[in-house]
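Technical note accompanying the year-one report. For the benefit of new consortium partners, we illustrate the data format agreed upon in the data management plan: each record pairs a sequence with a structure-token string. No post-processing was applied to the example shown here.
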Amino acid sequence: MTLAPAAPARDRWAPRGDAGAAVAESVMVMALVSVLFASLLQLGLALHLRGTLVDCVGEGARFGALADRTPADGAQRARELIGASLPASYADDVTAADVHQGGLDVVEVTATVPLPLVGWFGGGTMTVRGHGLVEVLP
């Protein structure tokens, strides 16, 4: 029985091609995917904030436009709705006024809130306006 000669021993320090590259690639891809995921979550949070505010100030404007109400009542109603739906500090800057638009008298409720940059922590401001047609009783 003859034995085949053993394969030559590899030098420990010799380059091994692309061995271990999969680990480095997966770390880079996971970092990129994590940033993309966090960005999409942040966009979703900002869109949720905007949609909620549009609903709250619109309801406040319609409430303030009723025949037996004033614009101040509409602003207060918007503050209550914002405070119930979002962090309480978002209801701090809510105003209302009678305005004339397109030949009609409307109540305009405006809310200015911090735009969330990371979670609920702000990085700018967002202003949302709601309008309600003033009700006139005969």
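Partners are asked to follow this layout when depositing records. Helices lie at 21-64, 71-85.
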